[in-house]
UniProtKB/TrEMBL annotation:
Name of the featured protein: KxDL domain-containing protein
CC terms in the record's Gene Ontology section: BORC complex
Residues passing through the membrane, by range: none
Pfam families xrefs: KxDL (PF10241)
Taxonomy of the source species: Eukaryota, Viridiplantae, Streptophyta, Embryophyta, Tracheophyta
Organism: Trifolium subterraneum (Subterranean clover)
Family per similarity comment: Belongs to the KXD1 family.
Domain of life: Eukaryota
Length: 92
């Protein structure tokens, strides 16, 4: 039991030493600046996501409105192509 206790104490001391060494590597101002930049980027990404979602909804509504016209025009174009193919076939 005392062996586990001394092992956990040495791990705790090692962790404290390691964390104090990390604190000397990076200044707190740099960390605050990095945190601020990350929050700014997150906000911009969320705004972009909202804009894209709105655009997708708008695009879906527009497609729904014109899909009938597109289908009808496609049928007309296919009919015209068929007629032209027949005419060119007869001309040859």
């Amino acid at each position: 039991m005392s062996e586990k206790k001394s092992e956990s104490e040495s791990m705790k001391l090692g962790s404290e030493e390691l964390s104090s060494e990390f604190q000397t590597l990076v200044s707190s101002d740099d960390l605050r600046s990095l945190n601020h930049l990350q929050h700014t980027i997150l906000g911009r990404l969320q705004d972009s996501n909202a804009v894209l979602s709105h655009f997708n909804d708008f695009s879906q509504n527009c497609f729904t409105e014109i899909s009938g016209d597109m289908a009808r025009n496609t049928r007309v174009l296919k009919s015209i192509k068929s007629d032209l193919d027949y005419i060119f076939l007869k001309l040859r």
